[in-house]
Amino acid sequence: MQHNILKHKNKIMSISGLLVALGLIAHFIFANTTISNSAFIIASILGVTPISLQAYQAMKVKVVSIDILVTIAVIGALFIQNYEESAIVTFLFLFGSYLEQRTLNQTRSAIKELTEMAPETAFKQLTGGQFAEVDIDEVEEGDILLVKTGAKIPVDGRVTTGKGYVNEANITGESLPLKKEKDDEVFAGTIMDNGTIQIVADRVGEDSTFGKIIELVEEAQDSKSEAERFIDQFSRWYTPAVLTIGLLVWVLTKDTELAITVLVLGCPGALVIGVPVSNVAGIGNGAKNGILFKGSEVISHFANADTVLFDKTGTLTEGKPEVSDIIHYGNNQEENLSLLLSVESESDHPLAVAIVNKLAQYKVRPIENTQVVKGGGVIAHVDGHVVSVGNKTLMKQENIPLSDDVLKKLNKLEKTGNSIVLTAVDHKLIMLMGIRDQVRSGVKQDLQKLKSLGIKNLIVLSGDNQGTVNSVKKELGLTEAHGDMLPEDKQAFLKRRQDSGEIVVFIGDGVNDSPSLATAEVGIAMGNGTDVAIESSDIVLMNSNFNRLPHALGLAKGTYANMRQNILIAVGVVIILLVSLIFSEWMSMSIGMLVHEASILVVILNAMRLRGYQLR
Predict the structure, then answer these.
(1) For a disulfide at 172, which of 387, 522, 543, 559, Cβ 3.0-4.6 Å?
(2) 263-285: per-residue pLDDT in tens?
(3) Is Phosphoprotein given among the entry's keywords (predicted)?
């Protein structure tokens, strides 16, 4: 019985509203007191039933809720035969509850939209090689799947054949479709805008990026910030306090209507709804823009941060070293490049990969007698030539002279953040190459936006040599740069900044960053980073989209400000209502309830602005 009544609370609200309208028409137009009072009494009884049931359920778990205030107020109004007030109060309270629920459902639309985007079927390659549509639960890691134009990509995987353009807006926030071809990564839930591809499943179901996004956003929206916990605690004490004040007013004045009005005007509905609706709206906006806040507490910390620490590789830089400079010594440059490519093609070292990518158009020759020199490089025989590839230590060991001009250029490259690769053929230096990790496109502008949003200190911490991090600092205009740091050094540095009173944000993407991500007030992981880094962080930038960082900070500040505005509105309205009740003649129970419900609508509309927030 109770369940059915609460289930149909919105229908009861509608009937109550119609009865209130009927009572007002009968009273003001037809002057029929019998019909108007009957309509108001039925509306009051109907309306107070679900409210009183909610009050009873709260009392069972020893919570003195706002529903108790309204129930007592309505019963009191009926007792003193103020039927119009009791009917209007119950309708407005139910209507306010309806608005709250509707708004929360709308602000949670990010979850609903994501869930609706979850693929339900996939075209799976069967034993005979043909493809058949199967339920998504039947797909396992390693399966080959077919994705056609307009279809949802069902799993995280890699393209094996075909090419096309994929819309990844719901994962990364990137509005433009991205070209995908062999060996490119694709994500579950994204849309194949154009083309046909086959993919091999790497992660399925809840393990996919899409599954983790839904889980993280659900957890974040269900979590409570310190402010929300305070308000929950506050309301437990506030409601009994209002009841006590109402009782004292009745004892001192013997004015039952005044005492009941105090109960109605003291309802802190806007205060209770204001903070959570702001946080839910902010988290929903973040999810829509490729930013995952793992809780509303994170938003408060991030909004008040003054120091941001960055790991360098994979965060400020691409994490993919590229050849930045080639200086030739001698003739036959094309042949020399071919010899270098042949040697480096045998290695999977990051510097070797950079060289192979740079020289892919040259011929690879057969290699003999490869010798790896620890801490130095590689010596190999190629087409009858002895090719030595490595650093200064290797050159010195092989008695290959380096002129003053070579050393000068080498030092200049090192100071600008390059790793050095020297190549000698038949014990004669023929090439000097500088390789460095490239700074992410647009990072400098993003960092300027962080400064404009109030971040005072932008600091890079890296395991790379000091020269490399200094060059990054200079290029990006950072506050400080610290190189040659182990993971424990980064964490210790972070703790020192915290001990000095700073609210510290740490941004990284590797396993070695996880201690610092966990220690910082706000840990931010790049979405393409390791699972450990993502799990230990508080915010995830999907697909390592660094340019979402300013939006994340602006959104956090906007949400935090919105939350404070809602608290001010809620508290201000209650104070104004109670003062008006004492010092004015016009304040009544129904007017007070109307203003009270209007304040709920105001904080809801204020919070809803966050759904469309964009950084200016």
Answers:
(1) 543
(2) 877 776 677 778 878 888 888 88
(3) no
Phi first, then psi: give them for residue 295, nearest 5 degrees.
155, 155
For residues 205 and 218, the answer to whether their CB atoms sit within 8 Å is no
325 is catalytic: no
Reported as a pLDDT band with limits 50, 70 and 90, residue 432 is very high
Distance of CA 85 to the CA centre of its chain: 46
Cβ pair 220, 280 in contact under 8 A: no
Instruction: State residue 173's pLDDT score.
Output: 45
Residue 370 burial (C-beta neighbours within 10 Å; 0-12, 13-18, 19+): middle
Q: Is the CB of residue 479 less than 8 Å from the CB of residue 493? A: no
Span 121-212: which CATH code?
Answer: 2.70.150.10
Structure tokens at 433: 């190459």
Q: What is the pLDDT of residues 333-376, one digit of tens each?
A: 999 999 999 999 888 777 888 899 999 999 999 988 888 887 67
- Cα 393 to Cα 327: distance, rounded to the nearest angstrom: 19
Considering the entire predicted model, what is its pTM? 0.67
Active-site choice (67, 143, 156, 311): 311
Domain coordinates of the chain in residue numbers?
Answer: 121-212, 319-438
Place of tokens 């790991």: 311
Please give the structure tokens belonging to residue 101: 């629920």
What DSSP state is assigned to residue 96?
A: H
**pLDDT reported for residue 176:** 61
What is the maximum span of the chain, computed from C-alpha positions, in angstroms? 114
Evaluate whether 286 touches 302 at the Cβ level (below 8 Å). Answer: no
Pick from 434, 426, 436: nearest CA to 330: 426
Higher pLDDT residue, 44 or 527? 44
Dist. CA 318–CA 353, nearest whole Å: 14
pLDDT at 190 over 90: no
Average pLDDT over residues 514-533: 75
Q: Topology of 319-438 in CATH?
A: Calcium-transporting ATPase, cytoplasmic domain N (3.40.1110)
Residue linked to tokens 């936006």: 449
